[in-house]
Amino acid sequence: MPTTTSGTAPSDGRSRPTANDVAKAAGVSRSAVSFAFNSPEKLSVGTRDRILGVAKDLGYVPNTLARMLKAGQTQSLGVLLPQNLARVMENPYYSRFLTGVGQVCDEQGYTLLLTPPLRDSMLKAIPYAAVDGFIVCGLEHDRGEVAELRRRGIPFVLVDSSAHEGVSSVDVDDEGGAYEAVRHVLDLGHRRITLLSIDPGPEHAERGYRGPLARRMAGVTRALEDSELGLEDIEIVEVPATRMDGFKATKRFMSSRPTTAIVAMSDILAFGAVDALHDIGLEVPRDVTVTGYDDLPDASWMRPRLTTVRQAITTKGRTAADLLFSAIRGEDQHPHQLLGTHLIVRDSTAHPRTTD
C-alpha cells in the first residue's frame, strides 16, 4: 500500500490534498495556510514560502470558488441572456454590449459569466450562476426571473426593459430613434413601406408590444400620423433578429408585395434585407431604400453604407455594469438611465424612383 510522506503528493488518486494536509506537512496551523494564499502579508517571508512550497509539492490548489461563496462574493458578474448562446453570438449587437460590460469588469477586477436559458428557461438558469449580481437583458420588471432575483436578494439591473420604481435600469430613446427613421423615409417620399421588425415572441398576443419594441412601435406610429397615415398603411413583418431571417423575409415579401422602402428595427435585419435585394437583382437605394437600427460597425463598411439609428451600445453596457457595481456596494438608489439615439444618414436611402 503506497504511503504519503511530507512533500510528496498523494499517490492513490482517491482524493485531492486539502489545506489541513498542507498545514500538517508544513507544521503550521490551518489559518496560516489560508494566510499564505489570501493574506501573505500576515506571515513572515520564510513561513509563507515554506507553506507555498509544501502546497506545490502536494499538488494543493485552493478552492477559490468555495472561499468566495463562503465570503458572500464571487468576484463575477452575470449577464442573464434571453436567448441561447448560439443565437446571441450571431448578433453583433451583443459583442458591442458585452464589450462595455467587460471594460467595467476589467476595471473592477471581476470576471464575466454569460448565463443563457437552461432547458429553454431563464428562471432555471439563475440558481446555477455563482455571481454577485446580474445584468438582465430584455425582460420586464414583472417577469418571474426578476421576482426570483428579488427573492434571492441578488442585485440586478434591467437593460432594454422599462423604467420601474425600485429597479435600476438602462434604456435608450427607442421611440425617438424609430420616429426619426420612419420620418426620414416618409420625407423622401416613400409610401409603400415595409417595417421589418423583431419578433416579439408569444407574449405579444396576450400583452401587446413591451419594452423597446413598444417604444419603437410608438415612434413608428407617431411618424406615420404626422403624415396622416397609420400602421394599417404599411406592411409589418416580424422575424427573429438574425441576418438569415432578414434575408428570407425580404425575399418572401418582395415576391408577393414589392415595397420601395424597408425600415428594419435592427441592423442585422437590414443587412439580411440588403443581401436579399442584391440576390434578386434590385439595387439599393435606386430600387429600394433600406434603413437599420443600432449603427453596428459593419453599417459604415457595407456597400451601400447603411442609413441607421445610432444607439450607444457599448455605453449601454458600461452604464449597466456601473449601476450593478453600485448596487453590489449597497449604493444603489434605483436610478433609470435613458440614453439618446441619433439618425445617421448614409447611402442606403433615396427618393423613390416613381411617385406612388
Structure, described:
By secondary structure, the protein is α/β, with parallel strands linked by helices. Helices cover 43% and strands 16% of the residues. α13 links the parallel β8 and β9. α12 (243-256) packs across α13 (267-279). The model is unreliable at 1-14 (pLDDT under 50).
List the helices and strands and how they pair.
Blueprint: H1 19-26, H2 30-38, H3 45-58, H4 64-71, E1 76-80, H5 85-90, H6 92-108, E2 111-115, H7 122-125, E3 133-137, H8 144-152, E4 156-159, E5 169-172, H9 174-187, E6 193-198, H10 204-207, H11 211-226, E7 235-239, H12 243-256, E8 261-264, H13 267-279, E9 289-294, E10 307-311, H14 313-328, E11 336-339, E12 341-344
Parallel strand pairs: 1-2, 1-3, 3-4, 4-5, 5-11, 6-7, 6-8, 8-9, 9-10
Antiparallel strand pairs: 10-12
What are the main properties of this structure?
12 strands; alpha/beta; 16% strand; 43% helix; single chain; 356 residues; 6-stranded parallel sheet
Question: Can you give me a brief rundown of this structure?
Answer:
Helix 1 (19-26) crosses helix 2 (30-38), helix 2 (30-38) crosses helix 3 and helix 6 packs parallel to helix 14 (313-328).
- Summarize model confidence as the mean pLDDT: 88
What is the string of helix and strand elements? HHHHEHHEHEHEEHEHHEHEHEEHEE
Distance between the termini: 92 Å
Into which percent range does the helicity of residues fall? 40-55%
Query: Tally of extended strands?
Result: 12
Biggest sheet record:
6 strands, parallel
Tally of helical segments:
14
**Weakly predicted, low-confidence segments:** 1-14
> How are the strands of the biggest sheet laid out side by side?
2-1-3-4-5-11
How would the global form be characterised?
A: elongated
